[in-house]
Amino acid sequence: MSDGNKKLIFTYNAPVTLTFALISFIVLGIGWITGGKSTQLFFEVYRSKISAAWFIRLFCHVLGHANLSHYASNMTLFLLLGPVLEEKYGKATLVEAFAIVAAISGLVNIIFFPSSALLGASGLVFMMIVLVSASDLRKGEIPISMILVIVIYLGSELWTMVSTHDNVSQLTHLIGGICGALFGGLLNSKK
């Protein structure tokens, strides 16, 4: 049998990751068409009266992005890390982790930054970075790679937070990273 006769087929190898990226892209397109109105209404989290839209924003702000550059910078790492995590922990666990990080970062923004809106998957990406590096956690062992990731990524976010006035996005990254470390510890301690 010759390798030249094999057909290449495309596979939807990581449904949660790919669907998230696709929905985020659609949200970006609709936001562009509506001049940002749809994004502001449903895909940015900010302090407002509690309503159905408020709950949608609390969880869906991670799907919204300010522009194509913002989307691309988040989705590059998201699409790289997502399939690995989806395979290791499963679809349902990954969706739960996304929902938890979205809710926590959204609530922190609402409580501590009442005049700021938050959108984008950066917190999820930071959670995924730390969670991938924590995937080798074993009882009584802490991988040096995980420590370096935490020091480099979260340390740089802490530094940026102290040295600039844009505390909102750095705080979201920190929340994502902390959640990733906690999820990594909890998920790997069960195995």
Please tally the β strands and state the result.
Answer: 0
Biggest β-sheet: count, sense, barrel?
none
Count of runs of 4 or more consecutive helical residues: 8
Taken as a percent bin, the fraction of beta residues is under 5%
Question: Radius of gyration over alpha carbons?
Answer: 18 Å
Structural class: mainly alpha
Helix content: 55-70%
Run of helices and strands: HHHHHHHH
- What do the pLDDT scores average to? 86
- Shape assignment: globular
Give the terminus-to-terminus CA distance: 41 Å
Describe, in plain words, how this protein is organized in 3D.
The protein is mostly helical. It is built from eight helices and no strands. Helix 7 (144-163) runs antiparallel to helix 8 (167-189).
Topology:
Layout: H1 15-33, H2 37-42, H3 52-60, H4 68-89, H5 91-112, H6 122-133, H7 144-163, H8 167-189
Helix pairs in contact: 1-4, 3-5, 4-5, 4-6, 5-8, 6-7, 6-8, 7-8
Summed up, what is this model?
By secondary structure, the chain is mainly alpha-helical. The chain contains 8 helices and no strands.
Features:
8 helices, mainly alpha, single chain
